[in-house]
Each structure stands twice: as C-alpha cells, then as structure tokens.
C-alpha cells in the first residue's frame, strides 16, 4: 500500500487555509521552508511495512513506527495511526529550543542558566531529581525539564510563538486551548507521526525558517548516543493525560541518515523505558546499526 504524505485528513481544509495565511506573512526564508516541506510531502511515498511492527510487539507495546527507508520512501507499521494527530508533549522541546535560540530568549545552549525556584517537581506523582536544580537549555533538553521550557515559552510569548510555529508548519499550528506554557501538553496542538517526519526532515537539512546556527545547535543537543558506527539524535515525549509516548529523530551511520518516529500507548513505566530500544531494534532490523 503506497500513497503520498500529503494524504487527506479531517483537518486538511483547515490546514490549507492556515498554510496560505502563513505563507502570505512569511519572509522569503519562511516561504522557502514551507515550499520545501510541501515538496517533501509530495515526493516521499508512504509504504506499509508490516515488519516495522515487530519491535513494538516484541516490547509488548501498541503503537506505530515510521522509518525512512533506503530508497527514500517512508515506511509505516500502521498507516491510520501514522496520520492521526496527537499532543506533541516533550517532543515540542525541539521547536521550543529553536525558537528560544532564534528570538534571543536563550543566547546559547549553555546561557542563560534558568534558576530553579525551589519548588519540587515530578512526573506522574514521582519526583524527578534532575529537574529540581538550576540548568541551561542543554541540560533542560536532555533532562526534559518541563518547568524550564514553560519559562522559555512565557519569555517567547504567544504572538512570537505562533509566528514561528506557523513558519515551521508544525502540526496543526493550533496553540489555543491552554496557556502559553502548557499548549503542547494539554492544549489543541496536534501533530501526527507523518507530520513529525516532515518537520524533522526540514530540521535535519537545516531548511526550517530559523537560522542555520539555531538548527545546528539543536542537532547538537538532540544527540542521544554516539558510537563508532552511528549517531542517534532524538527527543522523547510523554503526554501523561492521554498516556501517549513519543521518540522522534534520526540515525546517522555509514549507510546515511534515516528519520524515525515512534508513537506508542504508555501503559506503564516499562513503556517509557522501551521507546529508545524499540527504535534501535528496528534500526538493527534495517541493518543501520
């Protein structure tokens, strides 16, 4: 089964109207980024690859895995789920970091250092020690420190955030339904696995409507693992309210660079721990690592 990434969805007409509005307001760089994303959507066929379900099932999980294949096509384990929009949760730290660097909210990954207010924070009722300290964006990204990125979003502000989300064509671009510091966790922003792939493809090629410097720094902070054979770049996410987990990014190896997006139901803590291994298992099946 093959079709284009630009397949129809219930929100397709709204997305086209939003795209036209955004394009009218974009500078040349933003226009080219949007055109690049549209070209990707039109030229990257999507193929059902049942074998991509194997590592998900082996881990005892339910979800969808999307992988860029050797021929440039996009392989999916479940087409319907790959097209369905979900809250991005902490995967939004990728665009949030780009926007922070572009607007000067952060000078670099290491400055400023965001000051902890002394309030103990955690996730799903459990304290997270790595969150509860002063930290720059570099550490906050890798620790997935929610409070730091909430502070970042407030400093960016809703107007600038909306402008950049529109320029980057991120999901449905809808920041409504929640405060500026929570829309990616509880609001109406939605992004599908295939839309994540499009966004990541632009970021990987440094074609997004932000500076090359910002994109280079985000490439750097996304590094999860480096070996003599490959580099794994990515970001996890966990939408607690809907028990949904993400792992998105790309793998660089001697066989090139391959995008991936994993989206699974988060039944328990074991689900969280399985995300990276599911992707690595698929990469081994594809002889990438």
From TrEMBL:
Q: Its Gene Ontology biological processes?
A: antibiotic catabolic process; response to antibiotic
Instruction: List N6-carboxylysine occurrences by residue.
Output: 93
The similarity annotation says: Belongs to the class-D beta-lactamase family.
Ordered alphabetically, the record's keywords are: Antibiotic resistance, Hydrolase, Signal
Q: SUPFAM superfamilies, alphabetically? A: beta-lactamase/transpeptidase-like
Reaction(s) catalyzed by this protein? a beta-lactam + H2O = a substituted beta-amino acid
Where's the active site on this chain?
A: 90
* Listed GO MF terms: beta-lactamase activity; penicillin binding
Q: Which residues form the Penicillin-binding protein transpeptidase domain?
A: 78-281
Q: What name does this protein carry?
A: Beta-lactamase
Organism from which the protein derives: Hyphomicrobium nitrativorans NL23
Q: Which PROSITE patterns match?
A: BETA_LACTAMASE_D, TAT
Answer whether the UniProt record assigns the keyword Hydrolase to this protein: yes
Q: What is its EC number?
A: 3.5.2.6
Spell out the InterPro entries in the cross-references.
Answer: Beta-lactam/transpept-like (IPR012338), Beta-lactam_class-D_AS (IPR002137), PCN-bd_Tpept (IPR001460), TAT_signal (IPR006311)
């Amino acid at each position: 089964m093959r079709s284009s990434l630009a397949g129809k969805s219930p929100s397709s007409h709204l997305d086209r109207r939003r795209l036209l509005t955004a394009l009218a307001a974009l500078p040349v760089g933003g226009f080219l980024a949007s055109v690049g994303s549209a070209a990707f959507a039109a030229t990257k066929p999507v193929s059902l690859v049942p074998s991509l379900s194997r590592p998900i099932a082996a881990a005892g999980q339910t979800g969808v895995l999307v992988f860029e294949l050797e021929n440039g096509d996009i392989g999916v384990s479940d087409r319907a789920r790959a097209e369905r929009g979900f809250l991005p949760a902490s995967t939004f730290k990728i665009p949030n970091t780009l926007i922070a660097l572009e607007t000067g909210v952060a000078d670099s990954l290491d400055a400023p250092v965001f000051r902890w207010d002394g309030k103990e924070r955690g996730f799903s009722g459990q304290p997270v020690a790595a969150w509860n300290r002063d930290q720059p964006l570099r550490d906050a990204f890798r620790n997935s420190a929610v409070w730091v990125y909430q502070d970042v979003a407030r400093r960016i502000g809703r107007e600038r955030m909306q402008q950049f989300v529109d320029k980057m064509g991120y999901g449905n671009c809808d920041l409504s339904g929640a405060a500026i510091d929570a829309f990616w966790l509880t609001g109406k922003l939605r992004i599908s696995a295939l839309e994540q792939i499009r966004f990541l493809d632009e970021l990987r090629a440094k074609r997004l409507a932000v500076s090359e410097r910002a994109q280079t720094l985000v490439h750097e902070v996304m590094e999860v693992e480096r070996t003599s054979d490959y580099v794994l770049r990515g970001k996890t996410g966990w939408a607690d309210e809907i028990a949904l987990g993400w792992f998105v990014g790309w793998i660089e190896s001697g066989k090139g660079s391959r995008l991936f997006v994993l989206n699974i139901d988060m039944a328990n803590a074991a689900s969280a721990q399985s995300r990276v291994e599911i992707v690595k298992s698929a990469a081994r099946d594809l002889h990438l690592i």
